[in-house]
Design a protein that fits this description.
CATH topology of the largest domain: TIM Barrel
Largest sheet: 9 strands, mixed
CATH class of the largest domain: Alpha Beta
Radius of gyration: 21 Å
Low-confidence stretches: none
Bound molecules: iron/sulfur cluster
Helix content: 40-55%
Distance between the termini: 38 Å
Number of strands: 15
Structural class: alpha/beta
């Protein structure tokens, strides 16, 4: 049986955050029941043939599901073939968690929680449309610890409207003092079809300037380093040995299978994407139709590009020997000029058999990565 990672998508949220363009919906709670039933069928049909190395239940807000539906999901999870040291993460949001749900997750085998805090400041949380306040987060965090969750990630965001550098540093320090095993920190990106996108077009969004945002990223690196976190990806930091193994699968272009609406899979160089509409997903499952809206066999060139885009996100970089083993040609045969160009300006470096960003390069990663497209 082949080893693979599993992503399970739960597309429901209590309300829509103002920056969010993820495939998640509020006001569709009436579809939850039939969605979960369809999801169970998809899991049974597609996943039982694999050994599961990591599971990530994301969304949306998986913990927004009522207890009964989480119980039903547990029944499907229990049928899976899990490797003995499986990493099993569930995304959760403060305001949707309670003792019963956390105990159920523990019982389901979940051994890692990823909590979406985003900002350690009540007025900022309100201004980005989150449903919770800091106090609710703290209560949930403590509860999770008391129930025995020993591996917790906290998600944060920076470059938010009205967020000063001082507020950002304060968020970071307060979160780091809680001593979670992992912290993810992403800068706000304005995406189309979000409330923030519209507000920005109207000129009413007070975003930090670019140099302030760069300073925020620098504070992120230095503060988390001081608290003993190791940066292992552009936006991800962990205590020793607590890197997210599931996300490492994406960044290393290993194989994964996604189930649920909007989920993506990558198996034997084929990329699959399920339909986004919850209604369409349910209907396809119930009429035994294929759920994919896209199925694309990557060309070698596409696999090479993706391997570089994803691999260079890791601070340890891309292993040159692995590139050679995977593609039968060395990395220079594809990228000699590009690599030399960025080594000369000290944005990339070669070290111990790896190609990686320098610390200056990480700041300009989007710009550099664009050059790894093959004509
Ligand atoms: S809780 Fe997460 S998925 Fe849901 S709307 Fe907010 S950011 Fe998006």
């Amino acid at each position: 049986m082949k080893d693979i990672s599993l992503y399970i998508h739960i597309p429901f949220c209590k309300s829509k955050c103002w920056y969010c363009d993820f495939p998640s919906f509020c006001g569709k709670d009436n579809l939850m029941d039939s969605y979960m039933e369809a999801l169970g069928k998809e899991i049974d049909a597609k996943v039982l043939q694999y050994n599961i190395r990591t599971i990530f239940i994301g969304g949306g807000t998986p913990t927004y599901l009522p207890l009964k539906m989480l119980e039903d999901l547990k029944a499907h999870i229990k049928k899976l073939n899990l490797t003995p040291n499986v990493e099993f993460t569930v995304e959760c949001n403060p305001g949707t968690l309670d003792k019963e749900k956390l105990e159920l997750l523990k019982d389901m085998g979940v051994n890692r929680l990823s909590i979406g805090l985003q900002a350690y400041n009540d007025s900022l949380l309100k201004e980005i449309g989150r449903i919770h306040n800091v106090d609710e987060f703290l209560k949930n965090y403590e509860l999770a610890r008391s129930i025995g969750f020993e591996n917790i990630n906290i998600d944060l965001m920076f470059a938010l409207p009205n967020q000063t550098s001082e507020l950002w540093k304060e968020s970071l320090i307060k979160v780091a003092k809680l001593n979670p095993e992992h912290i993810s920190a992403y800068s706000l990106i304005l995406e189309e079809d979000t409330r923030f996108y519209d507000l920005n077009n109207k000129g009413t969004l007070n975003l930090p300037e670019e140099h302030v945002e760069r300073g925020m990223y620098e504070s992120l690196l230095s503060i988390l380093k001081d608290f003993g976190y190791n940066q292992y990806e552009i936006s991800n930091f962990s205590k020793k040995g607590r890197e997210c193994r599931h996300n490492m699968v994406y960044w290393s272009m290993d194989e994964y299978i996604g189930v649920g609406s909007s989920s993506a899979s990558y198996i034997e160089s084929i990329r699959y994407k399920n339909v986004e509409s919850v209604e369409e997903y349910i209907q396809k499952i119930n009429t035994n139709k294929e759920t994919y809206k896209e199925k694309h066999k990557n060309l070698i060139k596409e696999d090479v590009e993706e391997f570089m885009f994803m691999g260079l996100r890791k601070t340890k970089g891309v292993k040159e020997k692995e590139f050679l083993d995977r593609f039968g040609k060395d990395i220079d045969s594809y990228y000699k000029d590009t690599i030399n160009k960025y080594i000369n300006v000290k944005l990339l470096k070669r070290e111990d058999g790896y190609l990686k960003f320098t610390s200056e390069g990480i700041q300009l990663s989007n710009y550099v990565l664009a050059d790894f497209l093959i004509d």
